[in-house]
Design goal:
two-stranded antiparallel ribbon
């Protein structure tokens, strides 16, 4: 660990929470010219339609979720451009897109078609959340060196 990494920045120690801890951890990794080498990087984008859409809080209709998820598989979204700049792969995961059939090209870990409306009920059950987390961990842990990344965002 390297606590000196944030010296000179104007923030209170610990104010960045887990991001600060990650920065300190990265600073302690071996690298070149003080830049840590994290090897393969990946951005996981978990896609779902959210029931709270019914409250009128979304910027676009829920059909846009499936369209944007498909666009991510083609690398034509903002997150894909930013990931490419960082040398990271984008993994698009369907955890609850409200379509009749799974979308080709997405990693299918769908726990339901859409989620509950958080204004009136949980988005998903605890069992669904636990299953989803376990599925993601198993998918990446069992993937071998092909999919394993040292830095997931």
């Amino acid at each position: 660990m390297h606590n000196g990494i944030l010296t000179g920045y104007s923030n209170l120690f610990g104010s960045l929470g887990r991001l600060e801890a990650l920065a300190i951890q990265l600073a302690g990794m071996p690298g070149v010219n003080g830049i840590p080498h994290v090897g393969k990087k990946a951005v996981l984008v978990m896609c779902a339609d959210h029931g709270v859409w019914e409250e009128g809080v979304a910027i676009s209709p829920k059909e846009v979720t499936a369209i944007q998820a498909e666009n991510m598989t083609r690398g034509t979204t903002g997150v894909c451009v930013l990931a490419a700049q960082a040398g990271a792969n984008v993994h698009v995961v369907d955890v609850g897109i409200d379509t009749a059939e799974p979308i080709p090209g997405l990693i299918n870990m769908r726990v339901a078609r859409g989620s509950g409306n958080i204004a009136s009920a949980p988005a998903m059950s605890r069992r669904q959340a636990e299953k989803l987390l376990l599925d993601v961990i198993c998918y990446y842990a069992g993937a071998g060196k092909k999919r394993v990344s040292r830095c997931l965002v």
